[in-house]
Amino acid sequence: MEILPYSKDRQEEIMMVEKFYAEKYPFAESFDVLDLKNPLLNGRKNILLALQSGKVVGFSKFLSRQNFSSKFYHHIWLDIKTVPFNGAHEVMKKLFQSSIRPIRESTKSYFRAAGTRICVKLHESETERSRFFEELGFLPWIDFYYMERDLELPVMPVKLPESLLVKVWKPKKEPEILKYLSAEQSCFPDSPLEYRYLNYFFQRPDWKSQGAVIAVFDGKENLVASLMVYPSSNGVYYTEEVFVVNRWRGKGVARALMSEALIYLQNRQARSALLSVTSDRTTALKIYRECGYVHTFTRKVLVLPI
């Protein structure tokens, strides 16, 4: 068995491994070929391939999420998958061992944070992968709750405070993206987005054709709340990256923002809206339930400090 770096010539084989795994575990986190352009993959240098008899039988890839505060951790989101066969455990082991060095290299120049954690996200059906990572010393951290809102059901309009204005916004230029990032990073200091990722995301065809930010501004054009909508599949949209800046929390802005976004999607004949929220964000979870979202499934996160 060989462990080799990513090669574009092997892209079809990588996606075939992903397809096999998704068919066996439909609730596992998946990706498509466009995701291979994600800049957090470091020009695909963060992807390793396992070859046996000249064919790709598994891969590892990781996204490095840098933190800019000494209070929080850098997070490395690792994904290791194989085709189903008897030697899968050994392939995963080799891929994990081979990934440690590039993971350390990728974070060497990062801001000095509280530390670095390798994270894996798993559905309960993925028993083999769960057992594999637990044997390596990975421990439970948080859960991701996945929720859905049926847009065939009515949405009650909720008014914003009078001094605020909602807009459908598509940030394109650097000052607009930086305005968005400044507000977003103030709300999520533990997992901030980066400019390079957001710039990539806004260039994706699905975003360009059907994505938008439902944004709330104050009288001075400061961004005070935001929610992204973008397509998942036919008639289904994501409603993600929801935030309200500290000054405006507890004033009904989040509920009004959710209402605006859901009505916006209904007007586009969307059938349902999806979102995910971590188990530690209890206030957000309560608001989503009040807005009609129902829990559909959970993925747990296991972590290993390095």
UniProtKB/TrEMBL annotation:
Q: Which domain of life is it from?
A: Bacteria
Q: Which GO terms describe its molecular function?
A: acyltransferase activity, transferring groups other than amino-acyl groups
**InterPro entries hit by this protein:** Acyl_CoA_acyltransferase, Bact_Acetyltransf, GNAT_dom
Pfam families according to UniProt: Acetyltransf_1
Task: Report domain N-acetyltransferase positions.
Answer: 167-306
Q: Which UniProt keywords apply?
A: Acyltransferase, Transferase
Q: Which Gene3D superfamilies match?
A: 3.40.630.30
The name under which this protein is listed is Acetyltransferase
